[in-house]
Amino acid sequence: MVVVKKGKARFLGLGGEETTVRVTRRQSEATVQEAVTLAKEILEKLLSLMKVSAAVHEKETSSPEGETRIALDITGDDLGILIGRRGQTLFSLQHLVYLIVSHQLQARVPIIIDVEGYRERRQEALTMLAVRIAESVAASGQSVDLEPMPPNERRVIHLALQDHSTVTTESVGEGEARKVTIKKQ
Amino acid sequence: MKELIEYIAKAIVNNPDKVMVTEERNDERVFLKLQVDEEDMGRVIGKQGRVAQSMRTLLRVLAAKQGIRVDLDIV
User: Fold this and answer.
1) What was the pLDDT predicted at A53?
2) pLDDT at A85
């Protein structure tokens, strides 16, 4: 519980102010584990309905900010079909599992789904791309637009360059076409 | 195909009993119609149609394996 605005005591019952507090419910470990177990069952069910034979494992992963999170990794043969163009199929799968879990538990628990470590590899590749483009922008002074990316990928680019001394990043465009521009400060 | 949509829809609505999916097919196309309670329409469509779009994306994986195309209508 955080006190946002402290109230004042009343003087002779006059002129008091209320105290405003912000209450956030902590997600307990139990809820997270329950959600992961449920998410795994749902994901396996969806994959079997999609006639994709694959295994689902829990694995620890780190967010772009370096926090540890639990992800469900799908492994098997020929799973490119589950990633799709620009990761769209993977995103859809993750979104639906998230909705079903949230609906059943009546709580919003973030669920991360990966296919054969695709997200981690993509995150590394994007970070390297960001650094490389930043070097050329810094050298030439010419801004560069990256290809359109989903929100989580744009975030990787922003985070990779947030402490860069000579370039800044900005997302431009709408919806599917939204992309990151890297420009000299 | 029908089973996939039925499973997803029933799992995200408040009135699963009112979920109905019909499937018609010809040689190259499958037509799916999803019906839900009026109150649940928003849940199966989603903000900016994201849920409907996600269901179509997963259907496409299944359809691609069978070499056919699939349409999903929400009515």
Assistant:
1) 92
2) 85
| Chain A, nearest residue to B2 by Cα | A49
CB atoms within 10 A of CB B68: 15
What are the start-end ranges of the E strands in chain A? Answer: 2-5, 20-22, 55-62, 68-75, 112-115, 144-145, 167-172, 179-184
Reference A32, options A113, A92, A105, A83; nearest CA is A105
Write the ipTM.
0.94
Q: Which residues does chain B have within 8 Å of residue A91's beta carbon, measured at their own beta carbons?
A: 54
Assign residue A78 a region: left if phi > 0, alpha if psi is -120 to 50, beta otherwise?
A: left
How far away is chain B from the Cα of A46, in angstroms, using its nearest Cα? 7
Cβ(A129)–Cβ(A146) below 8 Å: yes
Question: pLDDT tens digits for A122-148?
Answer: 999 999 999 999 999 999 999 999 999
pTM: 0.78
Distance of CA B28 to the CA centre of its chain: 18
Q: Which of B11, B50, B58 sits opposite A100 (nearest CB)?
A: B11
